[in-house]
Specification:
Elements: E1 5-7, E2 13-15, H1 23-33, H2 39-46, H3 50-65
Antiparallel strand pairs: 1-2
Helix pairs in contact: 1-3, 2-3
Length: 67
C-alpha cells in the first residue's frame, strides 16, 4: 500500500505511511527518550533538520495522548 507523497525538509521526495515509523525515526525517539541525547545531538547524528526531529518527537507525545 502506498502513502501520500511529500517533500521533506531537505527537499527530497518521500512517502508518508500514516503511523508507521521509519527505523531512523524510531531510533531518534528512543535515543531522546533515554535522556542522554539532546535534539541538537540527534540532528547531527542523523543528518536531520531541527524541525524534522521536533516533528518526530511531537508525534511520539501526540500518540501517547491518544492511548
Amino acid at each position: 500500500m502506498t502513502g501520500a507523497m511529500f517533500v521533506d525538509d531537505a527537499g527530497e521526495l518521500g512517502e508518508e505511511f500514516g503511523d508507521r515509523l521509519s527505523s531512523q525515526q524510531a531510533e531518534t525517539r528512543r535515543m531522546h527518550g533515554i535522556g542522554e541525547y539532546s535534539i541538537t545531538d540527534l540532528t547531527g547524528l542523523f543528518s536531520m533538520s531541527r524541525p524534522t526531529v521536533d516533528r518526530t518527537l511531537q508525534r511520539d507525545s501526540a500518540s501517547a495522548k491518544t492511548r
